[in-house]
Design a protein that fits this description.
CATH topology of the largest domain: Rossmann fold
CATH architecture of the largest domain: 3-Layer(aba) Sandwich
Bound molecules: tryptophan
CATH superfamily of the largest domain: HUPs
Structural class: mainly alpha
Mean pLDDT: 95
Number of domains: 2
Largest sheet: 3 strands, parallel
Number of strands: 5
Strand order of the largest sheet: 1-2-3
Length: 333
């Protein structure tokens, strides 16, 4: 439509923590793609409301996530960084898309079923509508590429279905987005149960490492990381604990698995865990320092978010206008 550049879009819910798994799986790719795409990154705060939140904590966490985006190296001048709730077009479009989504489709979503089972006392409409809001997020910006974790693949497919359904009836209104599921993302496992993905909402603090965690705490967690029987530093699918640590080390240092194995020949798990902890601390040091600086500067964060929302609205409002017109709603002067 009105694009000079291809658009990449992704959102993250401000819940739990951003982990080194997110960093390795997602953020490093975002930074690489930042120059080739118009990148749109937002804090999906409206999505997070589908689960009960404590307002004070929620607000702080959302701001902290926003500061982390910038600390990672996402550039608010180059990219569009904002809070979903600051851009009313998200909800405006999601209403329209609701009318093009069947209840059966929404009910079939695995995440809806999982979250309904987990929060039986709060199966709210928002929970069911979650993927439709997500479709609106994506389609508003005519996104070409949407990096998501594998657990969001089904939502992306629904987005494509809704977009095609709309386009079939009204012409080429929406770009049909492609998902981008990083291969190494799911590779980072919990430090306490290496058969499970490192999850941002894991209730066990020893299972995850945050990108802004202090050095002592990082070292302690790696020291306590669950490993397997044996003591050789060798990547082996039957030894998920040590293999996970090797993956983390390799990602953090840029060394291959083979180079890592060679480096630690003759060393034991204890030495290696210490080395992994140190590699993580070193790699994330600039992120942590930048974060510490930013989080103290609330005025800057709010001002930057305001500019981000303005840029977002410029694009998003054109899509909403077009959609509302196609639907036959009376135009506003
Ligand atoms: N549902 C996504 C998640 O939990 C977050 C999200 C919301 C998102 N809207 C999006 C991701 C749009 C990509 C595109 O991970």
């Amino acid at each position: 439509m009105f694009k000079e550049q291809k658009v990449l879009l992704s959102g993250i819910q401000p819940t739990g923590i951003m982990t080194i798994g997110n960093y390795i799986g997602a953020v490093q790719n975002w930074l690489k793609l930042q120059d080739d795409y118009l990148s749109v990154y937002f804090i999906a705060d409206l999505h997070a409301l589908t689960i009960k939140q404590d307002p004070t904590e929620f607000r702080q966490r959302a701001l902290s996530f926003y500061a982390q985006y910038i600390a990672f190296g996402l550039d608010p001048e180059k990219s569009i960084l904002y809070f979903q709730s600051h851009v009313p077009e998200h909800t405006k479009l999601s209403w329209a898309l609701n009318c093009f989504t069947y209840v059966g489709e929404a009910q079939r979503m695995t995440q809806f079923k999982d979250k309904s089972a987990k929060h039986q006392d709060n199966i709210n409409m928002g929970l069911m509508d979650y993927p439709v809001l997500m479709a609106a997020d994506i389609l508003l910006y005519q996104s070409d590429l949407v990096p998501v974790g594998i657990d969001q693949k089904q939502h992306l497919e629904l987005t494509r279905d809704i977009a095609m359904r709309f386009n079939n009836r009204f012409g080429d209104v929406f770009t049909i987005p492609d998902g981008y599921i990083p291969k190494n993302g799911a590779k980072i496992k919990s430090l306490q149960n290496p058969l499970m993905k490192m999850s941002k909402s894991d209730p066990d603090p020893n299972a995850t490492v945050s990108v802004i965690e202090d050095a002592d705490s990082i070292m302690r967690k790696f020291k306590r990381a669950v490993t397997d029987s044996g003591n050789e530093i060798i990547f082996d699918e039957n030894k998920p604990g040590i293999s996970n640590l090797i993956s983390i080390y390799s990602e953090m240092t840029g060394k291959t698995i083979k180079e890592t194995e060679n480096e630690f020949v003759g060393k034991g798990y204890g030495d290696f865990k210490k080395a992994v902890g140190e590699a993580v601390v070193e790699k994330l040091r600039p992120v942590r320092e930048e974060y510490e600086r930013l989080i103290k500067d609330k005025a800057y964060l709010l001002e930057t978010a305001k500019k981000g929302a303005e840029k977002a609205r410029y694009i998003a409002s054109r899509t909403v206008k077009k959609v509302y017109k196609k639907l036959g709603l009376v135009e506003q002067e």
